[in-house]
Structure formats: structure tokens, C-alpha cells
Design brief:
There is one protein chain. A hairpin with a 2-residue loop joins strand 5 and strand 6 (143-148). 40% of the residues lie in helices and 20% in strands. It has helices at residues 3-6, 9-14, 35-44, 57-62, 66-75, 90-99, 105-119, 171-185; strands at residues 23-27, 48-52, 79-84, 125-128, 135-140, 143-148, 160-164, 187-188. The N and C termini lie far apart (59 Å). It contains eight helices and eight strands. The protein has an eight-stranded mixed beta sheet, with helices on both faces. By secondary structure, the chain is α+β, with helices and mostly antiparallel strands.
């Protein structure tokens, strides 16, 4: 039966039927997403967590005991990965010039590396990549938070989408494939 028969126009206009069903929520700013959503996604993940934000700095500020929580995740068999920018790269230096703020991009990356270093040998993997300077993707099993960065704005000023994987080759898979490619091309980063 055709979708038009199963889903009359009135229903289709009120109920998502395509790939946009994977969009659970949208926020005009990343920091408009409640920290309780982040906490639920972090704490509820059991298979894998990937934090592919260029600095991931805000995580350490907004989530108490994040290091302990992530170490417990890895101890329970969950894969935890951080993909961050290289604090010494030309891409990072150019971004610092654009942002022109006292808390520089390289400093924010180093804060993340320092926080990861304090966790010790917990099994958390960290790699450098400059390929995600304009896009942050945070994966939590089958949920994802995506922030496409707008021009000269800081990350928290850019919009964010909450996605949930519902099938193959949807929005979730497209972004996840991008992050996987960046991870595979990235280089190991020692926590500093």
C-alpha cells in the first residue's frame, strides 16, 4: 500500500514519516539543551560514547564528576572516545583569531586533555583531528547531539539537534560515518 493511503495528508502533516523522524529535538543554541538531557544520555549509554567536539571544554564545566562517570563506563565495557582539535595546529590558531576571546581554543582543548589525564589509565581513547572544526557530534549509543557551528560564533551559540537512530542511512548514520572517518584519520593524543 502506498504511504498516501496509509498516511492521509492530515496525518502526514502532523506525524513525521521520513528521515526527519530521527530528529527528536532542536535547540537554537547548544546551551539551550538542558544539562539533564546530556546527563541522561551520558549515564544511559552502555555500548559507546564519542565526544567529537573540537574542544569538549564545556563538558567538564557542566557535568560534575564526569571523569569518574566516564571511567565507570569504560570499566563496565562501554567504549569512550574523545576526538579533539590539535592545540598546536594551524587550524586551531586560525580559529583563535576568528573567535578572539581570552579563553582560547588551544586552552580549552588543553583543559580537556588535562581532565582526561587526571582520569588515568581508564581505557578512554583520545585522538586529534582538525576535520571537525565546524561540526561537533556527540554519540551516545543510538542517540546523538549535533552542533553545526555558525561562522564566527562560539560553540554554545550555535544550534543543536538531538537525533535518534531509527534505521540505516538516516541522519544519524550520516553524521556517525563522518565521525568514524575522522576518528580513523585522527592521530592518538596523549592526555596533557
Amino acid at each position: 500500500m502506498s504511504p498516501d493511503v496509509l498516511w492521509p495528508k492530515a496525518i502526514r502533516s502532523a506525524v513525521k514519516t521520513g528521515h526527519d523522524r530521527e530528529i527528536l529535538a532542536s535547540y537554537p543554541y547548544r546551551n539551550a539543551c538542558p544539562t539533564s538531557v546530556w546527563a541522561r544520555l551520558i549515564d544511559g549509554s552502555s555500548k559507546s560514547l564519542t565526544f567529537a567536539g573540537y574542544t569538549n571544554y564545556f563538558l567538564w564545566q557542566e557535568h560534575p564528576r564526569l571523569g569518574e562517570r566516564l571511567a565507570a563506563k569504560t570499566a563496565a565495557g562501554c567504549s569512550v572516545r574523545f576526538l579533539v582539535g590539535d592545540p598546536a595546529s594551524d587550524v586551531t590558531r586560525r580559529r583563535e583569531e576568528i573567535e578572539d576571546v581570552p579563553l582560547t581554543v588551544s586552552t580549552r582543548i588543553r583543559i580537556t586533555l588535562d581532565a582526561l589525564g587526571k582520569i588515568g589509565d581508564s581505557g578512554i581513547e583520545t585522538r586529534f583531528s582538525d576535520g571537525h572544526i565546524a561540526l561537533s557530534v556527540f554519540l551516545f549509543d543510538d542517540d546523538m547531539l549535533v552542533t553545526p557551528h555558525l561562522s564566527s560564533l562560539l560553540g554554545h551559540e550555535s544550534p543543536m539537534l538531538h537525533l535518534r537512530r531509527l534505521g540505516e542511512d538516516g541522519l544519524y548514520d550520516r553524521f556517525a560515518s563522518h565521525v568514524t572517518a575522522l576518528w580513523n584519520e585522527g592521530r592518538p593524543a596523549a592526555s596533557q
